[in-house]
Amino acid sequence: MPISYLSAAQISALDPNLFQQLSSTKIGQLTQTQVGALSVTNVEALTTVQAAALSATQVKGFTTSQIPHIPDAVVFDSNQLLALNGAQLNALNETQFGRIADAQFGQFSPAAISGLNTTRLSGLTSAQVAALTTSQVRSLTNAQLAALTVTDIGELSATQLGAMTNTQMSWLSSTQAGALSSAQVLALSASQIGSLTPASLSALTGDQVALLNATQLAGLTTVQVASLSAADFAELSSTQVLSLQTTDFAAISATNLWSLGTDAIQGMSSTLFSQITSTQIAGLSTTNFAKLSPTQVATLSPTQFGALSTDNIAALSDTQLAALTVSQLQGLSPAQLSGFSPTQFSRLSSSQILSLKPAQIGSLSAENFSALNASVVGALSTSQVAALSPYQANRLSSTDLAEFNLTQLKAMGAGLIGALSPEVFASLDTSQFSVLTPTQLSAVSVSALDALSSTQVQALTTTQITGLGSNTIRALTPAEFGVFTNTQVLAFTTVQIAALSTTNLVGLDTSQLTSLTSTQISALTTTQIGALTSDQVSHLQLRQIYALTNGQAAALSPTSAAALRTDQLSAMSVGQVGSLNTTALAALSSTQIQALSNTQVQGLSAVQLRSMTPADLDRLTTSQLSALTPTQFGNLSTTTVESLSSTEIGALTPTQMAGATTAQLSALDIEFVSPSQLAGLTPTQMRVLPMEVLAALSTSQIAALTPTQIPGLTTTHIAALTSAQVAALSPLQLNALTAAQVAVLPQAA
What we know:
Elements: H1 8-12, H2 16-21, H3 24-29, H4 32-37, H5 40-44, H6 48-53, H7 56-59, H8 78-83, H9 86-91, H10 94-98, H11 102-105, H12 110-115, H13 118-122, H14 126-131, H15 134-139, H16 142-147, H17 150-155, H18 158-163, H19 166-171, H20 174-178, H21 182-187, H22 190-193, H23 198-202, H24 206-211, H25 214-218, H26 222-227, H27 230-235, H28 238-243, H29 254-257, H30 262-266, H31 270-273, H32 278-282, H33 286-289, H34 294-299, H35 302-306, H36 310-314, H37 318-323, H38 326-330, H39 334-339, H40 342-347, H41 350-354, H42 358-363, H43 366-370, H44 374-378, H45 382-386, H46 390-395, H47 398-403, H48 406-411, H49 414-419, H50 422-426, H51 430-434, H52 438-441, H53 446-451, H54 454-458, H55 462-465, H56 470-475, H57 478-481, H58 486-490, H59 494-499, H60 502-507, H61 510-515, H62 518-523, H63 526-531, H64 534-538, H65 542-547, H66 550-555, H67 558-562, H68 566-571, H69 574-579, H70 582-587, H71 590-594, H72 598-601, H73 606-611, H74 614-618, H75 622-627, H76 630-634, H77 638-642, H78 646-651, H79 654-657, H80 662-667, ...
């Protein structure tokens, strides 16, 4: 019976001695399954002759449990070995595995190689690894690749390495990637390079990176590009840089990007340059910025250029400055503009400067603005001129201002005009001066106005005059103010007039003073009025006298009041006369006082009347005295009343008598009071009539008392009447007596 008929169980149960007696022929008849059923004892008893009889198909039947027990003396031939799978190869003992020749490794199937465990694979010699075919290499698993040492990796040929799949490339560790030789690096395809992990790619040395060709670099992903080190970038040539994908540029750190060599930086295309981010631009060192060609500088977008540091702005070379575009310049921030040195600014072309926005012009430092030549300043637009700062305006020279056309000058705000130095302001020519508005002139300082020649001052129009500031006018010296013509003085506003210092006001000559309008006169402060000299007051025109307010009239000094002409006094209103202060009123001469009309006299205030001395009252004419109202008369002091002459007493009206106080009646020389005057006393006055006054009344005066006045006398008054006075009483008067009065009435003489 053929041995192949035996079952697996029967094969497994064969006695070892019997098994050893099996001939090569019998052994060769065993099926693959029967081989796998042999007991370990029988496998250990396998002779070299029997082993040699096994076919490649039969060898495949050995299990991983049997293989370790194959005697060391048994030597498999090439066909037998190549029939083994990975698991079987792993099961070989070291002696058996060690008999595999280097060349034989390249003959194993890819499946067998991929079946090797990491221990077996890591045990391969460099020669064995080098013997692997491209198919075998492609079959290596992640774990197997990880087991390869850097030496093993280094032994892989360019062909083997090039055969690796992209997935396998992604499995390479950073240590393995760093061990690749130059030839190996060059053998990698773009897709393989692109499959390396960022960590593995970053493990490449600068020298390795420098070997990458354009195709390989183009295969890098954005993440990989970002993983390259500064040292890697430093090794890239301009050709390599140009090979990078434009979309990858944004992933490069500023440090890495600007680690490129000068040639590489200058070799960047406009397309690549446009991909540089603001963050990358901001990280540009002055050293690297100096590497940029003028063309590259001009390629920067306004956003990119706006991201430059002030240090880089300050480092712009003359050729780079010349390349700056309008868009770039208009995108500069005030901080960046301040980064320009005056020297740099002076080297910008006229068109470049004039392209700046008004706000940018206004933000220029005073030093940079001063660096502009006069022709450029003179070419500034009205918007740019209007945007200048006061500091810049203060830096304008006479030469600069001479370049300004009238439109530019009119565009300057009041603050800018006020900031001009006195010398520069005075350098304005006639045509320039003529276009200045009142608003602009309102900011002119005293020193600037002082710097003007008398011709320039007198050339100011009346409209321009109204713009001069109050503080400026207040600070003018008499000499400076004296330059103004009458016409110009007439143009002064009420605010300006009120701002005149008393020194300047006193310095006005007769012509200037008399040219002031009524409105201007009314605008003078009381301090100014009080400061007027007697000569000035005496020359005031009647229209100007009319214009004085009551408050201003009250401010006239005694000296000024004494200088008033009679026609001026006559022209004063009742209110003005009544507002004169008491010292000013007392300073008036008899002629002046007597120039007052009765109506004006009636305007004298209680304070004024109470302050009048007998001498003052003597200056009044009897007509003026008669014009006093009862109330006014009542305000005269008793001393003044006592001093009244018989003529003056005779001028008093009955109505005035009705206004006399008890004290005044006592002080009045009653004998000169006429009966008609006495008749003016009221019952109330009669009731308080001093006894001495009553006693002094003559019989004719007693007879002049009216029946209405009689009842006003007290019983004391009646009792004190003399017999002569009683005898002078008329029947009407007697009938007017009250019962109480009759009871005390003395007997008539």
